[in-house]
Amino acid sequence: MDIFSDLWLGAATAFHPVNLAYGFIGCLLGTAIGVLPGLGPTATIAMLLPITFGLQPESALIMLAGIFYGAQYGGSTTAVLINLPGESSSVVTAIDGYQMARRGRAGAALATAALGSFFAGTVATVLLAVAAPPLAAVALKFGPAEYFSLMVLGLVASVALASGSLLKAFAMIVFGLLLGAIGTDVESGTPRYVFDIPQLYDGLNFVAVSMGIFGLCEILRNLENEHERSVGVRKVTGLMLTRDDFRRIRGPVLRGTALGSLLGVLPGGGAMLSSFAAYALEKRVSPNRAEFGKGAIEGVAAPEAANNAGAQTSFIPMLTLGIPGNPVMALMVGAMIIQGITPGPNVISEEPALFWGMIVSMWSGNLMLVILNLPLIGLWLRMLTIPYHLLFPAIIGFCCIGAYSINNSVFDVFIMAGFSVVGFALFKLRFEPAPLLLGFILGPMLEENLRRAMLISQGDPTIFVRSPLSLSLLAVAVLVLGLVLAPSINRKRDEAFTE
Amino acid sequence: MLKIRNGRDFVGGVAMIVVSLLFIWFGRELDVGNSFQMGPGYFPRMLSLLLISIGVLIILQSLVVASEAEPDETANWKAYALVILAPIVFGLALSRLGLAPTMFLMIVAVSFASKYAGWRHSVALALFMAICSVVLFTRLLSLPVSAFGPWIPFLGN
Amino acid sequence: MHLKRFITLAAMAASICAVTATAGRGQDYPSKTVTVIVPFAAGGNTDAFGRLVAEQLDKRLGQRFIVENKPGAGGNIGLGELARAEPDGYTIGMGTVSSNAINQTLFKTLPYDKAKGFAPLSLIARMPNVLVVNPEKLPVNSVQELIELLKKEPGKHTYASSGVGTSIHLAGELLATKTGVKITHVPYKGSSQAIMDVVAGHVDFMFDNIPTAAQQVKAGKLRALAVTSLDKASLLPDVPTMDSVIPGFEATSWHGIFAPAGTPPEIVEKLSKEVQAILHEPAMKEKIESMGATPVGNTSEEFATFIKGETEKWAEVIKAANVPLQ
């Protein structure tokens, strides 16, 4: 088979000592920067991009990929430890990961994330090696109508993220969708709700909003009831996973990997949808579904696996079609162009060493990340034993710099402060923030694709049901909505009768 | 007579209605269009109307279903004010004082949001953070912000 | 006698002082770090050109030239900062056809004084756009055939762009106004999503920056009908120009370097000369050409005239096409 000679070529590139070293440096830097609150993969890569300009193309891309995985893993670490998701896909990890940390199981949560990610990364890399071109063809099937239907399904499923009142979860999704409408309307170019502030023309920044609503808000909540010196995490037990844990995460990791690998191929939001689709799925099928939202290990394993699998397969459109699917990939393309390589459909045949080298380096990068991070878990846990009154000012300090670094502008720092107030008010009224953030992310995509589809079909709404793919996605959405509503309607009826 | 059985949800429902009305008011000049030719105002308008109806449902629910008992929470206004104002002060001072002094002052101030704060610890932590952030962000990552700003004599630029 | 000699001496001294003083401003420059504002995110074309030029300025002038990315609002935020910076030559910035010629008309308000503008240093590079069609959806082989088809089926065909008011969108509007065809504009957020949908056949055609589009053309996923520069492009040497079919059709995206208005003319002159010299170096030329662009490097005055022409041209297109102002 050709694939083995290709992989051998890739291995020769990826395991070349120089490239191995740059890959390791990338993982290390990515983890180190990504673990700082507010510095997710996009910000980290943007900051570290210039240092790769002087390298060979292979080394530069391998290093950037290392930074990407490292930063992504670092983002999950802050999500678990201090309830601060550094990017959209770790919003879901924060839900149960942080609860696990509060119950003293931060070590287990981090180990689950590391091992789950490694497993998912391995599977997705194999998939990338054997099936990249057909998967890319699937991505091309998704036009505006299909994306709209996918987003509808995503929104319906995101209700599952809430553990409390369904009605209030719906309210949060809609509120999030409204916040997403702020900024320049893509179709007409009309500015909406910008109040003549130029910084608002591109909309609110996700990282700034999320740091305010999750990170700063969590500090406000902790300081409100400061009974003990360390309020963040009470005690730290169980550094490693028990046999029972392994048994519990097996299924979720497998399902998460499958979902992530498939959705990650879709440019523009696929990888991001995958983590919470995986969470929503586990919440339905898990025997421990009552524990979700209170620190279920499945709630960490599934989204982390999905997230990492999606991160790998999101390279597929870029490597096979030359089209970047998300901001991180756009940065990688920028780096390639500066190196004199324009990515396109011919990159596999024209630059085989580069292509296969990157694929093998994805796997080696994931391996390095596990080797690097399992011993580091002890260090992160030690960080939690720092008295909270010393920890929280440092978190605020890093959040401020993190918000600044998004656009090198203090405007995002103000947005973060503003949303800490919003987040705290929502907490006081017992609204859950996760559905809000998902609505906020999905809103612009939902609206853009809806209106784009209508534009292309010249105002004919049947475009959404004419395409079999779009129709089946909508059908699943209706089904999921039914499943979500049924138990709560039953409960309401019971309550009404008992009164 | 209607009685509010869940005060929190009642306020929550009202808050959602207020938010929708704000979006409708500030978007009043956006062209709404129709379902076949949607204007920039269509999506926010429909969402606002949807949120109003959800808000009404939440209010109705709060009149029927009683809230569960929850432990009392005591407001800590000093902590709220310090934590929320800290980033704002940071943003205002950054370009004028530079990263090091801004970070130092902000950390000292915000650390007193905790009742366990002490001068010695706060100053030490603030110094540590100021040095750390300058080394990490201005030296290693070349973030476009100077360590000492124009308001600092001799050192600033 | 004494007095006369004294006066002569004094006059000589004074003139020497004056000469050294004016020359000094240019000669001492730069004596400290210079900031180069890039009003777009890291990793894009403007960022790449900015970094390439900054690196060379660094080497030639012996001071650090540091690139700062200040993205947002189509470049307006970064240019606003450039306009507010001290006009002493220690803050300069990049600008593009969008930020320095289109936004002037497209935006009702700008965060800087439109009339005052900037001191242009030099045009760095021009990048042609290429008109590409999906060969399965539009069975046309030339611009003439495309126009005929579009005239036969008015309002039935769609073209993608990287957003309202971008040079890619306005190239489509230019086509519509010059030929009178009726086509539907489908805007995207950025050109990568847009080209993906053209490759997939969800949208019929688009104008796109040449490097990415050329790769799709080479792989046979798209068909290139024409380039929008007056000369043929090195990456697609067989493709004719739009100008040869529709005379006067020119729509390139260009990247230049600017100083704030009011920067001393000696410094503007010095920087402009250095940038021109950099762009005439063979290694630099090759690098820029490999990115699908044409290196330029003209004088401050030539650049200023060029910008004026571009601003007027796009103002007319925006007006003729009824593009809503922001």
Secondary-structure map:
The complex is a heterotrimer of chains A (499), B (157) and C (326).
Chain A lengths: L1 H13 L2 H18 L6 H8 L8 H26 L8 H12 L3 H36 L2 H15 L7 H15 L2 E2 L6 E2 L13 H19 L18 H22 L5 H16 L12 H16 L1 H7 L5 H12 L8 H4 L1 H33 L3 H20 L3 H18 L4 H24 L6 H4 L1 H31 L1
Helix pairs in contact in A: 1-16, 2-4, 2-16, 3-4, 4-5, 4-6, 4-14, 4-16, 5-6, 5-12, 6-10, 6-12, 6-13, 6-16, 7-19, 7-21, 8-19, 9-17, 9-18, 9-19, 10-11, 10-12, 11-12, 17-18
Chain B lengths: L6 H20 L15 H23 L12 H21 L1 H13 L7 H22 L17
Helix pairs in contact in B: 1-2, 3-4, 4-5
Chain C lengths: L1 H27 L5 E5 L6 H17 L3 E5 L6 H9 L6 E6 H10 L11 E16 L9 H10 L5 E4 L5 H13 L4 E4 L3 H10 L4 E5 H9 L4 E5 L24 E9 L4 H15 L2 H9 L3 E2 L4 H21 L6
Parallel strand pairs in C: 1-2, 1-3, 5-6, 5-7
Antiparallel strand pairs in C: 3-9, 4-7, 4-8, 4-9, 4-10
Quick description:
The complex is a heterotrimer of chains A (499), B (157) and C (326). Chain B is an all-alpha fold and 157 residues long.
Task: Give the tags.
heterotrimer, A: 499 residues, mainly alpha, two-stranded antiparallel sheet, 21 helices, 1% strand, C: 326 residues, D-Maltodextrin-Binding Protein, domain 2, ten-stranded mixed β-sheet, 10 strands
Structure characterization notes:
The complex is a heterotrimer of chains A (499), B (157) and C (326). Chain A has 499 residues and is mainly alpha-helical. Chain A has helices spanning 2-14, 17-34, 41-48, 57-82, 91-102, 106-141, 144-158, 166-180, 206-224, 243-264, 270-285, 298-313, 315-321, 327-338, 347-350, 352-384, 388-407, 411-428, 433-456, 463-466, 468-498; strands at 183-184, 191-192. Chain A is 74% helix and 1% strand. The relative contact order of chain A is 0.18. Helix content of chain B is 63%, strand content 0%. Chain B is mostly helical and 157 residues long. Chain B has helices at residues 7-26, 42-64, 77-97, 99-111, 119-140. Chain B has five helices and no strands. Chain C has two domains: 32-127 and 252-320, D-Maltodextrin-Binding Protein, domain 2 (3-Layer(aba) Sandwich), CATH 3.40.190; 128-244, Periplasmic binding protein-like II (D-Maltodextrin-Binding Protein, domain 2). Helix content of chain C is 46%, strand content 19%. Chain C has eleven helices and ten strands. Chain C has helices at residues 2-28, 45-61, 76-84, 97-106, 143-152, 167-179, 191-200, 210-218, 265-279, 282-290, 300-320; strands at 34-38, 65-69, 91-96, 118-133, 158-161, 184-187, 205-209, 223-227, 252-260, 294-295. In chain C, strands 1, 2, 3, 4, 5, 6, 7, 8, 9 and 10 form a ten-stranded mixed β-sheet that branches. The longest helix of chain C has 27 residues, at 2-28. The termini of chain C are far apart. The B-C interface holds B 142, 144, 157 and C 32, 35, 66, 68-70.
